Amino acid sequence: MNTRHSGIGMTSSRTRARLIERLRTNGIRDEVVLAAMNAVPRHIFIDEALASRAYDDVSLPLGFGQTISQPYIVARMIEILRNGHPLNRILEIGTGCGYQAAVLAQVAKTVYSIERVQPLFERAQDYLHELQMQNVILRYADGNLGLPEAAPFDGIILAAAATHVPQMLLKQLAVGGRMVLPLGTQEQFLYLIERDAQGLRETRLEPVRFVPLLTGKA
């Protein structure tokens, strides 16, 4: 690993530990998820000018109208996706800088992640390569289409808010699988969609705030 943000890196283990305690206090109960959050150095994924805030429980700008999600939201969505069970094949829509993909890589066998903004896709490639994340497969593509050639997925997670559930993604969710996504425009809520042998079940969870899910590549 290189020495980028080295000053932050020297204190990151302590600040990460404080972040984990905040997550636990705020209701994250899955110790596997907490361990995964603790294992990933968030400061690696953040511009140096903002690196001092890397372990604050806030979202931060990435440029291109995108953000790195608040750690609590990352942990909460992955906790819902896991539901206490091991994950095999996961699809993430909206790689961004690659932080959430890196956390997912700690709890899943294989993570496929799609990013539509080419500079962010390339940045995420660099960061994940730096951390030697061998089980993350990135694609530069329109996330609304998913990745049919790698389906079905036992988990699908969206890092941007859709106005409706993308049907192409639903088709790629395995029986027994879970999809976690934000839905809405001005008012957004986190939703859980579960597929079983009888069909789909949708559950509305807490209010959230995400950038919108866009179509095409940029």
Strand and helix layout:
Elements: H1 6-25, H2 31-39, E1 60-63, E2 66-68, H3 71-82, E3 87-93, H4 99-107, E4 108-115, H5 118-130, E5 136-140, E6 153-158, H6 167-171, E7 173-184, E8 188-196, E9 199-208
Parallel strand pairs: 3-4, 3-6, 4-5, 6-7
Antiparallel strand pairs: 1-2, 7-8, 8-9
Helix pairs in contact: 1-2, 2-4
- Detail the poorly predicted runs: none
Radius of gyration: 16 Å
Write the H/E string, N to C.
Answer: HHEEHEHEHEEHEEE
* Distance between the ends: 29 Å
Tell me what portion of residues adopts beta-strand conformation: 25-35%
Mean pLDDT over the full residue set: 93
| SS summary, helix count | 6
Number of strands: 9
The biggest beta sheet is recorded as: 7 strands, mixed
Morphology: globular
Query: Which structural class do the helices and strands define?
Result: alpha/beta
**Major β-sheet strand ordering:** 5-4-3-6-7-8-9
**Share of helix among residues?**
25-40%
Summary tags:
218 residues; alpha/beta; seven-stranded mixed β-sheet; two-stranded antiparallel ribbon; 31% helix; 29% strand
